Amino acid sequence: MHSIRVFSILVLAVVCALASPLEVVPRHRHVVKPKVFLIGMFPPEGEVWYGIPEFNLLERNITVPGFSPLFPDAHCTGNGDVCQVVIGESEINAAASMTALTLSPLFDLRQTYFMVAGIAGVSPKVATLGSVTFARYAVQVALQYEFDAREIPDNFSTG
Questions:
Q1: Which uninterrupted H or E stretch holds 74?
Q2: What stretch of H or E contains 86?
Q3: Which whole-number Å values give the CA distances from 28 to 25, 33, 43, 106, 158, in the listed order?
Q4: Rounded distance, CA 157 to CA 155, Å?
Q5: Model pLDDT, residue 145
Q6: pLDDT digits (tens, 9 = 90+) for 43-69
Q7: Of 100, 113, 95, the residue nearest 62 (C-alpha)
Q8: Beta 73-76 vs 82-86: how paired, if at all?
Q9: Is the dihedral of CA 17, 20, 21, 22 positive or negative?
């Protein structure tokens, strides 16, 4: 019975959130309707798209509430046909930034193609250069921080 009540409250919360989205932008402002949205995980994956003469992705920078503080902007061409974002490494950052993007009233993504353009490694015994691979399992270590015991100062009493 308790689980049904919790589920009902969650459903109600979602319905209320969808029924009354936060007004982040005035209604008269232009909503960007990109044809293609390029997704990168960290700066080198994003920077490779800058400086291409056929389209200037840095012509229009749109700050999106909910994006990572490290990468707060979506970058778009002047007409908004092509946009690009760096969402941050790790599943947590990626999920938060993609959720903020898809729920943002700044964009109409109903007819947008998404391209996850990243670099990754795979054993040459399994795939060749340029192959697309999908991992069966992912281990979350991107937000893990460690101290090497050899680097701990002598005056540390714990850790």
A1: strand 73-76
A2: strand 82-86
A3: 8, 15, 33, 11, 57
A4: 6
A5: 62
A6: 888 888 998 888 899 999 999 999 988
A7: 100
A8: antiparallel
A9: negative
